[in-house]
Amino acid sequence: MLFNTGTFAIFFIIVFISYWLFLKNSVKWQNLFLLVASYVFYGWWDWRFLSLIFLSSLSDYLIALKIDAPIKPKSAKIWVTISIAINLIMLGFFKYYNFFVDSFIDLFALFDVELSKRSLNIILPVGISFYTFQTMSYTIDVYRKQLKATRDFVSFFAFVSFFPQLVAGPIERASNLLGQFYIKRQFDYEKSAIAMRQILWGLFQKVVVADNVGVVVNQIFDNYQQQSGFSLILGAMLFSFQIYGDFAGYSNIAVGVARLLGFQLMQNFQSPYFSQNITEIWRRWHISLSTWLRDYLYTPLAIKTRNWGSFGIAFSTMLTFLLCGLWHGAAWKFVIFGAFHGIALTYDIFTKKTRKKWRKQIHQKIYDPISILLTFSYWTFTLIIFRAQSAKDAFIYLKSIINKPLFTPDDLSLAGLKLTMVGIVVFFMAFDYMGRNKTFAIETTGKPWPNIGRFAFYAFLVFLIFLFFQTDGDAFIYFQF
Amino acid sequence: MNQQTLLSELSEIFNEVLDKEGIVLKPDTHAGDIEEWDSLTHIQLIVAIEKHYKIRFTSLEIQHWKNVGDICQSILDKTM
Amino acid sequence: MLMLPVFLATFTVLWGLFTPSFIKDNLNYKLGSDSFLYNRIREAKQVQNVDVLVLGASQAYRGFDPRIFEEQGIRLFNLGSSNQTQIQTEVLIKTYLERLHPKVILFVVNPESFSMDGVESSIDFLCNGVIDNQVTAMVFRLNSIKTYFTFVYAGFRQLMGMDNDFVHPIQMEHDEYISGGFVEKEYQPYRDVLPNDSVRWIPRHFQMEAFERNIETLKKSKSCIIFVQAPVLREFDSKIMNAEWYNQYFASFNVPYYNYTQILNLPKSFFYDNFHLNQHGVDTFNNDLVERLALKQKITEVTMTYYH
């Protein structure tokens, strides 16, 4: 079930009404109901993979209890390793098996050894990268004694599978979300109104920005060999906005939906494109993932290597971002994507003081906008690798930007469409900038206005969502044999 | 060594590592209170503290810390 | 909440009036089209009592030339329009059948229209037709964002009489509108490419339902109904995987059915693209039709049976 479909709307209305009307007096029943609803939500896509969520939840539920019991530190370490192993094996098999096997075969092929191909036809279970990270963090927190293991079976299972954030985050920590399952949730009109606003903005980001910009992006990336340099740059920049609109839109809807049920999820994006360096982007982009990696990967690595001096920091940063890249998908292009970010962060670390000096010398009014532009350009450059079919395509794409003529007469075709997209992006970024210190862009937009003006603004967003909704109006259905 | 002297010594280390002046640590100060105290400087702080007191923390110890008070406790455990 | 529809309608009108047309969104408004629906609808309102009525998509309005039938003494009106699907045919039947009062109805049943969602043609109807109860009902039946937007905006324009001065040209590029609803393409040789892959026109359920409703209505009208598949290029026809399924479907209605692609088996020289005959082809096709279907006898029969 996707958020921007009618099926989800009906599903959520049923959940919302039952939850607040019939079950409001019992936290226990509400939790059980949320658990069932979440499993239905996931099972709608493929019920077989419910067993994976169940397995991941069950193993961490039991292991955390083991760790929390009075046992020797050594045994606790063994148990936490088992928990991590179970999750990583699950993730490794379903997401990375073919990638590893193929890479292994390619490696041998370099030495003229031919191995037979044994790729399996594995379907990637939706959301597996999200919920395995969520359960792992719980067990590790218990191991670090930052959290007590829970005996509330239903709450824990509902926490792992909580449908608003199950398939695409935010990756919640037990320390934030699990506790909210224990206490009574109150329906609050003010909060619900904010939630609706957040969902509205999320839909705008997804339906108006991402889906429409995506049409142009696809045209350019699918035929990148026929494009002018200008077109290629435009395509890459538009992709930056597409992926931001898509992902941040999803997160906003998730947070809003959870809010309507009385839960507060973490903020996942905070106007990342106004960052002044790549480090800052990662503080504002997919915050739930970057803080996860910081707490469970980077920090332990950096602590372990703390006596290696600068090299230890650089090493930990690089390794973290290589794996961060790989988290995004099982392909070398994602590893390369991660590597470029590792390099940028390492650069940031070692030039911190120099940059501070530059900023003073040049004057921040000039320095800051330039930094924002340079940061965005570098980010867009790495996203070309992210979006291209393969690392090789990315390389040709980048080469074409320089080699191809900057403009060709073809650029004028679909000029209207491209101009529309630029207009949408400008509108989007204007609000994103104005709301950069808020939890979402239009959290407080229109607060001082008269009611009618504020309502007209929301109605205008609804209007734009309908106006730019991508309908699958394909009249001709070709069927290939 | 009591906690009060420890706190003023730590404050000095913080001032130096974070390249900032006027940091006065309290037992309940945590990373969120000081802008420069991030995942990167955290490691530098640990290294500086270990060097100053000639001690070595375990990874698990470090990860148990929630605030400056916890750090003091770890140091006191090692130096007493 | 009650204000929302008012706001939405206001924004729609303002958007339609003030944004340039190149913006690709769900609000489409285009006065005039190469299917000349504008002229056809306005002519249909003046015409009464014809011998033959043609319904269908482009194979209809580009395939049945009233001048050829006139030579044989048959009065034909062509209500075909671009990408017309059963949903629009239904509107035409309900609006014009009574006044046109045809003796024979040639229902052009080329299968691709059964696989269409009908949105494009609806927009044609909203912009170039007249928005009345039937067209409004069609909009709600389709329940598509695109038609709703065009409905609101086109409705506003018609209410305000904003397009009253519009005169649709009789000639556009290579096409000329011929009185009686036909569009003649200036002669040009076949230039089209065949698709590499097979084609399958997957019928949509709601189109089939509308088709069956249409047949019901027509049968009640006492006119003689005949299904015709206008010729398409035989090389193209052979690529359609489920052509035979359609043959059986149309044959199941107990209505005479002529598949002219198979009957005439015309070569490329009679077509200008995969779907459409050139004027030479239309000549051949129409003359054969009059004879093979014994149209004149049918008209007389119906007239004798019901109108005396």
What attributes does this structure have?
heterotrimer, B: mainly alpha, Non-ribosomal Peptide Synthetase Peptidyl Carrier Protein, Chain A, 4 helices, globular, C: 308 residues, alpha/beta, Rossmann fold, five-stranded parallel beta sheet, three-stranded antiparallel beta sheet
- How far apart lie the N and C ends of chain A? 29 Å
Number of strands of chain A: 0
Task: Please name the CATH topology of chain B.
Answer: Non-ribosomal Peptide Synthetase Peptidyl Carrier Protein, Chain A
Give the % helix of chain B: 55-70%
Number of domains of chain A: 2
Total of helices of chain B: 4
Q: Judging from the principal axes of the Cα atoms, what is the shape of chain A?
A: globular
| SSE string of chain B, helices as H and strands as E | HHHH
Task: Give the averaged pLDDT of chain A, no decimals.
Answer: 88
Contiguous low-pLDDT stretches of chain B (5 residues minimum) are none
Portion in helices of chain A: over 70%
Radius of gyration of chain A: 24 Å
Termini separation of chain B comes to 8 Å
Average pLDDT reading of chain B? 85
Name the assembly state. heterotrimer
> What count of helical segments of chain A does DSSP give?
18
Strand-residue proportion of chain A = under 5%
Sheet having the most strands of chain A: none
Q: Write the CATH homologous superfamily of chain B.
A: ACP-like
Strand tally of chain B: 0
Brief account:
The complex is a heterotrimer of chains A (481), B (80) and C (308). Chain B has 80 residues and is mainly α.
Molecular structure report:
The complex is a heterotrimer of chains A (481), B (80) and C (308). Chain A has 481 residues and is mainly α. Chain A has two domains: 27-179, no CATH class; 191-447, no CATH class. Chain A has 18 helices and no strands. Chain A has helices at residues 6-22, 27-46, 50-68, 73-110, 128-143, 153-161, 174-182, 189-222, 229-260, 278-284, 287-304, 310-327, 332-350, 352-362, 364-387, 391-403, 415-434, 451-467. The relative contact order of chain A is 0.09. The model of chain A is unreliable at 473-481 (pLDDT under 50). Chain B is mainly alpha-helical and 80 residues long. In chain B, 60% of the residues lie in helices and 0% in strands. The mean pLDDT of chain B is 85. Chain B is built from four helices and no strands. In chain B, helix 1 (3-17) packs across helix 2. Chain B has a single domain, classed as Orthogonal Bundle (Non-ribosomal Peptide Synthetase Peptidyl Carrier Protein, Chain A), CATH 1.10.1200.10. The termini of chain B are close together. Chain C has a single domain, classed as Rossmann fold (3-Layer(aba) Sandwich). Chain C has 14 helices and eight strands. In chain C, helix 2 (37-44) packs across helix 6 (119-128) and helix 5 (86-100) packs antiparallel against helix 7 (133-142). Chain C has helices at residues 3-18, 37-44, 58-61, 66-71, 86-100, 119-128, 133-142, 145-160, 205-220, 234-237, 243-251, 260-264, 279-292, 295-306; strands at residues 52-55, 76-78, 104-108, 171-172, 175-178, 182-185, 224-229, 257-259. Chain C is globular. Chain C is an alpha/beta fold. Chains A and C meet through helix 17 and helix 18 of A and helix 1 and helix 8 of C.
